[in-house]
Design goal:
There is one protein chain. 41% of the residues lie in helices and 15% in strands. The chain is of the alpha/beta class. The protein folds into 2 domains: 22-142 and 229-336, Malonyl-Coenzyme A Acyl Carrier Protein, domain 2 (3-Layer(aba) Sandwich); 147-224, Alpha-Beta Plaits (2-Layer Sandwich). A hairpin with a 5-residue loop joins β9 (252-253) and β10. α2 runs antiparallel to α5 (76-91). The longest helix is centred in the first third of the chain and has 16 residues, at 76-91. It is globular and about 50 Å long.
């Protein structure tokens, strides 16, 4: 069956059981400008009310700008809000006859969005958390410390390359103030001071993939998920503990792979993880996703927008754990173009058609 044919399949007899994986800040790029145009979303309306109360530009107005501006759209006080708001708005478009959300997780800042998706925070408090943390990261006195770089550790078929992984581990061991920030499927995201990042770029073998040179520095990112963010964590614990923490309504998986269960999860422990451990220690995306796949056995993983840049990382984790028999990049691509894809990125029009309500 062709890709175009699969985009017009009738709704299944039973909704597909979906694991939602929310993207982190940095997902909103030039191609995502205009993502919110024409979307009605109760969650987005709540998000906008929070922005307005804080005296910040509305997400809709930022998204409606005639041109993409890195200084505007990638800035900490806007990038996090754009990402989370678009994710929530996308999820409000899901067709309940096709998709049943049975669990949630999120990469890096996407964890904050996942808290709202799972009901572990009211949407208004989710917006407050996203907005506040994003605002702090944009200011030196609050936590704009060091930065992050990305380095791939897989071959062309998305199999793990032990030599590249060893090179990353050796760099982290040898360079002061360099840390694993995110274990992102087949990619390492490293965080550190400016000196540490410069030393890592000089030490790691240069690679070229998709027209980009690696190691690749991420613009306007702090050294998230490293001990360098301890002051930000302390501030968060002081100023955001009052949020309405509660057990989630659906299973929720964090950046250590921990499974937070409906009704039984301890709200205080969830608060302490979010405002402490999640900020200052490595976010293990790979373990998170492997654990969620094993515990929930979803029919499909849903990536809400903006964009679809987590698709490769999700595929690499699936291949690494032989999820549903996927053992190579070619296997994954073949499955994605079949009648039963394992991953639906709502930022891709062809895949979006399989999950959302048709426009009136």
């Amino acid at each position: 069956m062709s890709h175009s044919e699969s985009s017009h399949l009738p709704a299944p007899t039973h909704p597909l059981r979906a694991l939602v994986l929310c993207p982190g800040r940095g997902s909103y790029q030039r191609d995502q400008l205009g993502s919110l145009q024409g979307l009605a979303s109760p969650a987005l309306d709540v998000f906008e009310d929070e922005r307005d109360a804080a005296g910040r530009p509305s997400v809709r107005s930022l998204d409606a700008e005639p041109r993409f501006s890195p200084r505007l759209h990638v800035a900490g006080e806007h990038a996090s809000a754009l990402t989370a708001a678009i994710s929530l708005a996308d999820l409000d478009q899901l067709d309940p006859a096709r998709i049943s959300v049975v669990a949630a997780c999120g990469n890096s800042m996407g964890w904050y969005t996942a808290l709202g998706v799972a009901g572990a925070l009211p949407i208004a408090d989710c917006a407050e958390l996203v907005d506040t943390m994003g605002w702090w990261q944009s200011r030196q006195e609050y936590g704009l410390i060091g930065g992050q770089l990305v380095y791939p550790m897989v071959d062309a078929d998305w199999h793990a390359d032990p030599k590249l992984r060893a090179a990353v581990d050796d760099a982290v061991d040898a360079i002061p103030d360099l840390y694993w920030s995110i274990r992102l499927g087949g990619q390492a995201v490293l965080g550190g001071t400016e000196d540490a990042l410069a030393a890592a770029k000089a030490r790691l073998p240069v690679q070229q993939q998709a027209g980009l040179d690696f190691p690749l520095r991420l613009p306007l990112h702090s050294a998230f998920h490293t001990p360098l963010m301890s002051a930000t964590a302390q501030r968060a614990q002081h100023e955001l503990s009052w949020l309405g923490w509660r057990a989630p309504n659906i299973p929720l998986f964090d950046g250590t792979g921990r499974h937070w269960r409906p009704r039984w999860a301890d709200p205080a422990a969830l608060r302490d993880y979010t405002l402490g451990t999640q900020i200052t220690t490595t976010f293990d995306f790979s373990t998170m996703l492997r654990t969620a796949l094993g515990a929930i056995a979803p029919d499909v993983v849903i990536l809400p927008g903006p964009g679809s840049n987590l698709g490769g990382a999700v595929a690499q984790v699936m291949i690494d754990c032989d999820w549903q028999g996927l053992s190579s990049k070619a296997d994954f691509i073949a499955r994605q173009t079949s009648a039963h894809p394992v991953l639906l990125s709502l930022g891709r029009p062809d895949q979006r058609k399989l999950a959302v309500l048709s426009p009136p």
